Amino acid sequence: MNKGAIIGLSIIAIAVTLLLFVLQDAGTYATFKEADENPDKEITIIGQLNKQKEVIYNPEVNTDLTTMFVFDANGEEREVHLHKAKPRDVEKSENITLTGKMVNGVFNAETILVKCPSKYQDGKMDTSKLMEQKF
Amino acid sequence: MTISYIGENLQLGKWGHIAVLVAFVFAILSAIAHYFAVEGADHEKEGWRKIGRYAFFAHGLAVASIVALLFTMLYKHHYEYFYVWKHSNNVMPLRYILSCFWEGQEGSFLLWTIWHVVLGTVLSFTAKKWESPVMAVFAAVQVFLISMLLGIHIPDGPFIGWMILVIGAFLLFIIWNKLSTIERITIGGAVLTIGLFIVNKNIPGFQIGSSPFTVLMREHPKYGKEAFFLNPQYLHALDGNGLNPLLQNYWMTIHPPMLFLGFASTLVPFAFAIAGLWTKKLNEWMTPALPWIFFGVSALGTGILMGGAWAYEALSFGGFWAWDPVENASLFPWLTFVGAAHVMIIQRKKGKSSYVTFLLTMLSFLLVLYSTYLTRSGILGDTSVHSFADGMPGQLLIFLFFFWWLAGYLVVWNKMLRIIYTVLSICFFVVQFYVDDLKILSIVLIASYIGIFVFSYLKFFPKEENEKEESVTSREFWMFIAAILLLISCLQIIITTSIPVINKVFGTALTSNTDVFEAYVKYQILFGFLICLLMGGGLYLKYSKTPVKKLLSDLAISFVITAALCLIVAFSYQLQYKNEVFRLVVYYLFFFAATFAIVANVGYFIRVLKGNVKSSGAPIAHLGFGMIMLGAFISTSQSDVISENTSHFDLEKASDNSIKNNENIFLAKGDTLPMGGYYVTYNNTYQDGPDIHFDVDYLRKKPDSTFEKEFSLSPFIQINEKMGNVAEPSTKHYLHKDIYTHLQAYKTANANLYKVPKGDTVHMNGGFLWFKDVQLSVKHQNNNEAAKVESIKVGAVFETYVPGLPKEQFTVIQNLVGKESTSPETKVESLKSKFKLVEINHEEGYFLFEITNYSNEYIILKAIQFPMINILWTGCIVMIIGTTIAIVNRNRKTKQTQNVG
């Protein structure tokens, strides 16, 4: 076998090993129930904000705590303590991705990713002001 | 009843649609003509080449017209057009019109297209005998890109089947003479079957591309039904939706063009590689392609780092690189491109090409397509903060598949295998529309692709006979290793970034680790370490064989200097990482490697090249990259959140002690708090256009306990009702460190209006204010009492009765000049309030005051210190200089050999 083939095969071998390693690192999207069952494990949840309840960020008391209520993929609702300042536009969010651990029934999140409904794409036409104008 | 609207300019859009069609048709014509200039009969080739060339110029002109028309529309605020309405508005400063242009999908494709036109035009004149095969590829890419702008609606029903039949018949006609009878029958049969199969299916209608020239109210029913549009003069009152405030930054006017120039430049070597395979000139294509690779490495690298600079200046995540999928996507092609440059240097030296050269060169462009798919199709959804949703995923996939197929087809060096490969690809493409579970299909496809490629390489791909084994002390051996390392490093980033794609294909629910150290850095720091060592040592190696003694002494000098520098850092500055010894050891090792890359290349330039600039492209480019690595490493690994909460509030204990995201400081207006060796305070806020600025002063405490201002930053909030307010950071740049300051939240004083008749009181701060008196002072022209009144000054005199405070008197003023009135603010420190006389109502006999209590204003700050980030930016410039020298040198050498030959 020539050198080229050896190199080719070793690249494939390394790539496969790497893939396995990387996928081992990767977590899976989970639900609050799984978070309950694995209290020490870091878990990633994709959910939706309960927009009926208020997102509380009171920096005068704690600059690093945002409290909200989130539904997971099963529709189960939990209180979430995000240990960060309130992320921008969280109220408008469509989906949120949280990573953290469950502690005493409260999901303590360290990171958050807020996905807004096509954030800047879908402009709403604000004609309310325009309609008032007399032409 | 039809309404005739006033002020609409529909001509522009009509011309725009026409220009898009013209660009599309001429791109097709150019591709076909250039194809025949390669494949046609000898006496016809020259004619075809000319047609191809002029068709490409016509295409280029049409693309330029599209750009010009779109600019005109944006510049003149033609809100009757959807694109203009969606991406711009009246209040936006004119300088951001460029950002509006490429904010949308259509505009950014246009930007990409126009760079291809520019590069293609340059190649038309410089590629000489390569013109036709190279430009055929260029024009084909343009066909796909322009199709993204077509905006043609395909109706329901058999239409698409007929289209496949017509296009298939046409393509078959083009290659008819190349085929044997059996192939004619098989391919013809396949086209006919697929076409008829689809004709019989009722395929729902869809749209090809999205035109930037659609008219808001007529072609967008969602908006067009607004009652507002019944008014013939609607344009007078219509304002645009506006530009995403985050993009209103000067980096956003130069980063996208640079990045797309980089993307576009990967097409040139790709086209040369395709041309080389196609015309079976497996070695010659590298000579013209090499300077373009250097150019592309430089352009793409700069584009990526400019994006980093934008993120650093304007975004709130703190830092220039967040391993966001969109950032990663732009990095893939760069890594393989650098790899391609290195293998190509080796192979050119040997005068022959290799499989890996083709692989890396073509992979770079194909990865650009893959990145485009990742970022534009919306597939990244939940993993990226900036995925540009509303895509044309189907069309992008076809674009991606076609060129992956083409590259693979040419690499498979055997007719039979090529047919198998093609049939397999087409089957996969058709079947994936009909099955939901792609798991098995994908595994089969990937496995058979790998099989075909490996088999065709071992069995058929032309290889040099009795190739000499390369010596372990040869430069080419280690350059090859470096290229492979870059490929593997790229693979790791691709795999992790592609997790959403993996999920989609295999139906899994994986997530990448949100800790970027676990997800990326722990792998990349290893690759970076090895690459830095290779960059430092590589140039001291000679081609074919290096005398070991000389090499060791050369390297020893660099090692000693690097070790000395590392010791200095270890003892005087010390790298930090939370007392975790292993990580700290890794940090020092990486620090050593990056410093070694810098020291060794400077040494090479001084000692070996004796400062000869002409041939110093490689060491200077390597020096630049070494600096980028060092700067990136120090500024990110040693960045320090200095804004711990030092306010008087106790932090509520987190229910889990492991979580201590204690990184925001609560700063009340007027307070002075210690923060990271400084003291911070803010006393002033002011509004500038839509931005509310907060002047944050960083102070130093002097020995006598007084404060001295060190510098002042002005982070701001951009008020944007439509898209939500956006906070933009402000950064103090020192030579050796940056201090980044970002507003997490804020509370400004709220103003209240009070109607107060003279003599009445206002309750405030537990006491009250008495509106005691009104003073008038009238100023006449030239101070002449008989002349006209020039201005009147009204003063409302207040007296304070607040328990615990001494009685105080102050006056709130309004100035009247003609009919214009101005109301300056009166600030009363003891009440922590500002007063303004807004209106004097004579009829009802009251004065309207605006009273603003600013006592409970505060901001929440996050401040990060980034050490040595300037090494990174400087490194970028050094790398550009290095690659430029390399390009100039390469062109000079090519000219010399041409003259000699």
Give structural notes.
The complex is a heterodimer of chains A (135) and B (901). By secondary structure, chain A is an alpha+beta fold. Chain A has two domains: 1-27; 31-115, Nucleic acid-binding proteins (OB fold (Dihydrolipoamide Acetyltransferase, E2P), Beta Barrel), CATH 2.40.50. In chain A, 25% of the residues lie in helices and 33% in strands. Chain A has helices spanning 3-25, 32-37, 128-132, and strands at residues 27-30, 43-49, 56-57, 66-71, 77-82, 95-103, 106-115. A five-stranded mixed β-barrel of chain A has the order 2-4-5-7-6. The model of chain A is unreliable at 118-135 (pLDDT under 50). By secondary structure, chain B is α+β, with helices and mostly antiparallel strands. Among the domains of chain B are: 1-154 and 207-248, no CATH class; 156-204; 546-638 and 868-877, no CATH class; 665-748, no CATH class; 754-856, no CATH class. Helix content of chain B is 54%, strand content 16%. Chain B contains 26 helices and 23 strands. In chain B, the strands form five sheets. In chain B, strands 6, 7, 8, 9, 10 and 11 form a six-stranded antiparallel sheet that branches. In chain B, strands 4, 5, 12, 13 and 23 form a five-stranded antiparallel sheet that branches. The longest helix of chain B has 34 residues, at 42-75. The radius of gyration of chain B is 34 Å and the shape is globular.
Instruction: Give the terminus-to-terminus CA distance of chain B.
Output: 77 Å
Biggest β-sheet strands, sense, barrel of chain B? 6 strands, antiparallel
Strand-and-helix sequence of chain A, N→C? HEHEEEEEEH
**Greatest interface:** A-B, 67 and 80 residues
Radius of gyration of chain B: 34 Å
Q: Spans of chain A of 5+ residues with little confidence (pLDDT < 50)?
A: 118-135
Strand order of the largest sheet of chain A: 2-4-5-7-6
Helical coverage of chain B, percent range: 40-55%
Q: Could you tell me the number of beta strands of chain A?
A: 7
Secondary structure tally: strands of chain B:
23
- Which structural class do you get from the secondary structure elements of chain B? alpha+beta
Helical fraction of chain A: 25-40%
- Strand proportion of chain A, as a percent range, falls in 25-35%
Distance between the termini of chain A: 83 Å
Q: State the low-pLDDT regions of chain B, or none.
A: 385-391, 647-660
The assembly state of the depicted protein chains is heterodimer
